[in-house]
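Pipeline run #58 for the internal structure catalog. This entry was flagged by the ingest filter as a single-chain record with no existing model, so it goes straight to prediction. Upstream metadata was stripped on purpose; only the residue string is passed forward. Reviewer on rotation: M.T. Logging verbosity set to normal.
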Amino acid sequence: MSQDRLKVLFICSRNQWRSPTAEQVFRRHPALHVRSAGTSASARKQVSAADLEWADVILVMESKHRSRLMQDHATSLAGKELHVLDIPDDYRFMDAELVELLQTAVPPLLRLG
């Protein structure tokens, strides 16, 4: 079953509020298998090459996250689908506005209908 699910990696800076919220919002979706990580050395879970290789689709919160990934993990990103959500670091974990932004922005990118 899990082979049929799309593997989505959500990335922000410290893996504290935005990407864990995205992981929480989409973790029960039957078509998805989700994880989250951060680009900062102080992230709760720092993104690794293994995380990037695992993912079918990588969704970063800001352009700076894409730049950091390209700088640190260019090889692991080869051929990967990567999207910038343009969600600023203005929200706390499970903030209602953040949840709404994610529920609006993510499904079209993942072709969830």
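catalog note: The chain has a mean pLDDT of 95.
catalog note: Strands lie at 6-12, 32-38, 57-60, 81-84.
status: ready for reviewer M.T.
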